[in-house]
Write a structure and sequence with these properties.
Bound molecules: '5'-O-(N-(L-prolyl)-sulfamoyl)adenosine
Shape: globular
Structural class: alpha+beta
Low-confidence stretches: none
Helix content: 25-40%
Distance between the termini: 20 Å
Number of helices: 13
Mean pLDDT: 95
C-alpha cells in the first residue's frame, strides 16, 4: 500500500479524551474514529488488525472442532422472554420496537438464539457433541463506555456454544475451548492468564476469565508467578484425549490466579513471597459451563440411546475480538508508539522513501516494494514528500515489525537501513540483502 493513496488520518496531538495508551495510539494512528459514545468506525489500519485477530481466533476455533455460523445482530424478544433473561438483562440491553410494534433487541450475546437453532436441527444423541460459533457485533448499553474500544457499547465478539449429552461430556467441550483460548492468545503474542471467575448474567457454576496483564487493566489480579513461564503451544496435548486434556487443564489451573471479584487473600498468602504477583489485567476472554440452564426453559431436548429425551448440557465461550486490538497495544508499546506482534501487525514492513522525487531513491524503493510484495509481504510504502523526521515518527508510532529506510546517501553505496521496531536495532545492508532478509522471515 502506498501511503500517498491510503487513508490513514494521523493526528498530530494527543486527543484529550484518551485516558489510556491504546485509546490514544488508536486515535493518533487513525485506526478508529468515534461515532458516538462507545461506538466506533474502524478505519483501514484498524480494520486490518481487527481482521487479523479475527482470523487467528477463527483458525483456533476450527482447530478445536467448532463450526462457524453467522447469526443476526437483531433478535426477537420472544426467546429471551422464554429463558427469563428479557427482564433480567436490564438496561444493558438495547431494546428496539419494529414497525409492527414487535419487541426486538440488538443482541448482547446469543445463548437463546443458538439453542433454538440447535434444537431445530438436532434430535438424536448421535448428532452430539457439537460446538457452533460466530464472530459478530454485539451491543451492550454499558453505563460507562470508556477507553475507546476497550469497553465499547458496540463491540466484536467471538462466541461459541457447545452442546453435549452429559455434564462430563460438556466438561470435555469446555476443556477444548480452554486449550484453544490459551493457544489463540499466545499466537497473538500475549500472555493471558486463566482465572476462575464469577458467572454474572450468563449464569452457570464453572467459569474462567482470561486476562492479559497491563497496568491499565480494569481488574486487579493476583496470581502465581509460574503462569508467566508457560508456553501453551509447546505443550503436546491431544485435545481428543478426555483424561489427558482434563489433567493438562487441572495442571494449568492448579496455581493461584484470581481477579479481585473472587480473590482469597488467605490462599494467596500461602505462596512464597517471590511467587506472589499482584497487578492489573484486561479480560479478553470468558468461558462458561452452565449445564441445562438454557436447554431446560427453551426445551432443547435430545433423544438418548435409551429413547428418553433429555435436556442438553451446554457452555458458552466468548472472546473480545475488538477489545483484543486495544489489549495487544496495552501489552506491547513504548514511548514512540505501538509495537505490533508480527502475527497481528496491519502490515509486515514499513518502507520509508527519504527523498521522494529523487529518481534513484524512487527506483530503489519501487524495487523493494515490488519484491517484498511479490514475496507475499504486506508493505506500507511511505512515498509521500513529507519531512524525514515526521516519517520516522509516524512509522514508529504505527509500529510495524520492520522498517526499510532508503535515502540517496546510503543508496550511493548501494545501502539501505533495516530497522527492527521491537529492539530498535538499525543496520545498514545492501539493497538485495535487505530484500533477502525480509523475504526469508
Ligand atoms: C460467552 C460468549 C459472554 O457474553 N456469552 C457468549 C458469554 N461472556 S462475556 O464475558 O460477557 O463477554 C465475552 C467477552 O467479550 C468482551 N467484552 C467486551 N469487549 C468490548 N467492550 C465491551 N463492552 C465488552 N463486554 C464484553 C470481553 O473480552 C469478554 O471476555
Amino acid at each position: 500500500m502506498r501511503l500517498s493513496k491510503y487513508f490513514m488520518p494521523i493526528l498530530r496531538h494527543d486527543p484529550k479524551e484518551a485516558e489510556i495508551v491504546s485509546h490514544r495510539l488508536m486515535l493518533r494512528t487513525g485506526m478508529i474514529r468515534q461515532e458516538s459514545a462507545g461506538i466506533y468506525s474502524w478505519l483501514p489500519l484498524g480494520h486490518r488488525v481487527l481482521r487479523k485477530i479475527e482470523q487467528i481466533v477463527r483458525e483456533e476455533q476450527d482447530r478445536a472442532g467448532a463450526i462457524e455460523v453467522l447469526m443476526p445482530t437483531i433478535q426477537s424478544a420472544d426467546l429471551w422472554r422464554k429463558s427469563g433473561r428479557y427482564d433480567d438483562y436490564g438496561k444493558e440491553m438495547l431494546r428496539i420496537t419494529d414497525r409492527h410494534d414487535r419487541d426486538m433487541l440488538y443482541g448482547p450475546t446469543n445463548e437463546e438464539m443458538i439453542t433454538d437453532i440447535f434444537k431445530s436441527g438436532v434430535q438424536s444423541y448421535k448428532d452430539l457433541p457439537r460446538n457452533l460459533y460466530h464472530i459478530q457485533w454485539k451491543f451492550r448499553d454499558e453505563v460507562r463506555p470508556r477507553f475507546g474500544i476497550m469497553r465499547g457499547r458496540e463491540f466484536l465478539m467471538k462466541d461459541a456454544y457447545s452442546f453435549d449429552m452429559s455434564a462430563q461430556a460438556g466438561r470435555h467441550s469446555y476443556n477444548k475451548m480452554f486449550l484453544a483460548y490459551l493457544r489463540t492468545f499466545q499466537r497473538m503474542g500475549l500472555t493471558a492468564i486463566p482465572m476462575r471467575a464469577d458467572t454474572g448474567p450468563i449464569g452457570g457454576d464453572l467459569s474462567h476469565e482470561f486476562l492479559v496483564l497491563a497496568n491499565t487493566g480494569e481488574s486487579a489480579v493476583f496470581f502465581d508467578r509460574s503462569y508467566l513461564e508457560k508456553n501453551w503451544n509447546q505443550e503436546n496435548i491431544d485435545q481428543d484425549d478426555v483424561d489427558g486434556l482434563q489433567s493438562a487443564i487441572d495442571g494449568f489451573t492448579s496455581h493461584y490466579a484470581a481477579t479481585d471479584e473472587i480473590h482469597d487473600p488467605a490462599e494467596f498468602e500461602k505462596l512464597n513471597d517471590d511467587q506472589r504477583v499482584e497487578g492489573r489485567g484486561i479480560e479478553v476472554g470468558h468461558i462458561f459451563f452452565f449445564g441445562t440452564k438454557y436447554s431446560t426453559p427453551l426445551e432443547c431436548l435430545v433423544q438418548g440411546p435409551d429413547g428418553k429425551a433429555v435436556p442438553v448440557h451446554s457452555g458458552s465461550y466468548g472472546i473480545g475480538v475488538s477489545r483484543l486490538v486495544a489489549g495487544i497495544i496495552e501489552a506491547s508499546h513504548d514511548d514512540d508508539g505501538i509495537i505490533w506482534p508480527q502475527a497481528v501487525a496491519p502490515f509486515d514492513v514499513g518502507l520509508i522513501n527519504l527523498k521522494a522525487g529523487d529518481a534513484d531513491t524512487d527506483a530503489a524503493c519501487e524495487k523493494i516494494y515490488a519484491e517484498l510484495s511479490n514475496a507475499g509481504l504486506d508493505v506500507l510504502y511511505d512515498d509521500t514528500d513529507n519531512r524525514a523526521g515526521g516519517k520516522f515518527a509516524t512509522m514508529d508510532m504505527v509500529g510495524l515489525p520492520w522498517q526499510v529506510i532508503a535515502g540517496p546517501r546510503g543508496l550511493k553505496e548501494g545501502q539501505v537501513e533495516v530497522k527492527n521496531r521491537q529492539t530498535g536495532e538499525r543496520k545498514s545492508v545492501g539493497l538485495e540483502e535487505a530484500i533477502n532478509q525480509l523475504t526469508s522471515l
